[in-house]
Amino acid sequence: LLGQILDQWFESEPLKATLATDAVIGAMASPHTPGSGYVLLHHVMGELEGRQGAWGYVAGGMGALSQAIAHAATAQGAHIFAEKAVGHVLLGRDGRAQGVVLQDGTEVRSKLVLSNASPQITFLELTPQEQLPNDFVQRIRQIDTRSPVTKINVAVDQLPSFLAAPNARDGQPLPHHQCSIHLNCEGTHLLHQAFTEATHGHPSSRPMIELCIPSALDPGLAPRGCHVVSLFTQYTPSALAGRRPWDEQARNAYADMVFDCIESYAPGFKASVIGRDILTPPDLERIFGLPGGNIFHGGMSLDQLYFARPAPSYSGYRSPIPGLYLCGSGAHPGGGVMGAAGRNAAQVALGDFRRL
What we know:
356 residues, alpha+beta, FAD/NAD(P)-binding domain, five-stranded antiparallel sheet, three-stranded antiparallel sheet, globular, FAD/NAD-bd_sf
């Protein structure tokens, strides 16, 4: 249990609760859920520019990372087709992957196919079911994809000023504006309470909020004097109690509750908002293909990690279809902006390609 680990090392309840947020980020779990300690480890492993466990912003926004990867690929001769949805994986008579068929009917032939989509989309939607073992299909169907995350992107016309550390008169960003700001994290009991509400189908009445202001470090993201604020919030259930839909009314009611919480820490925040984009778990699934809205393509619980990700006997990036590989967050070692699953899958695919 994460709570036990934190109790061993720390005394301050606000510090423990703030650290605990990284153990439940993207997970329908509380700090008291068995196995939650691993998710914290996952978030602090690795390094950034020699600093162990450090995280960073991508200059130009997260899309700039995708662009950097794309430019590196095209420089090596790759051809990238954006906005071209895949209909299904093309199989030969011998059952091997031979490319993909786009939804417009275009066939793209290749000796290998690597899928960065989730295991559910890859194997349940894009692969002919009769070509897959029944036990494998059942395992993919059983992956826990519950997600508590609602992401809210906000545009503001002034820098938030927090009661705990008011802004300077010149309105310039202070050190805390350039970090991850955790709200409603005064105690781990608050996180557990928020989790419990969501398990009963109700958005948390006091949500866990991780607030970042990337424009404080990268001014080009917003006009002069304005800022973009990224709110990573939980817990919100994928399915609301009473089968209520996540319609505009429900979205806005939850966002208003989040903004009320921020207002209590930073008076004037609500008045500074000039635009917001609310992405609930169903929105994240519909727009980005995240099963259940899960940012990791599936829970990072101990029963869905290591040799069991995405399924026992298939953690090595190969699939039951020869020539078809899984290289996204649903593969080992899981989610996070680190590229480990893609790099590992590429190494395996290259080794197989040399033998074709």
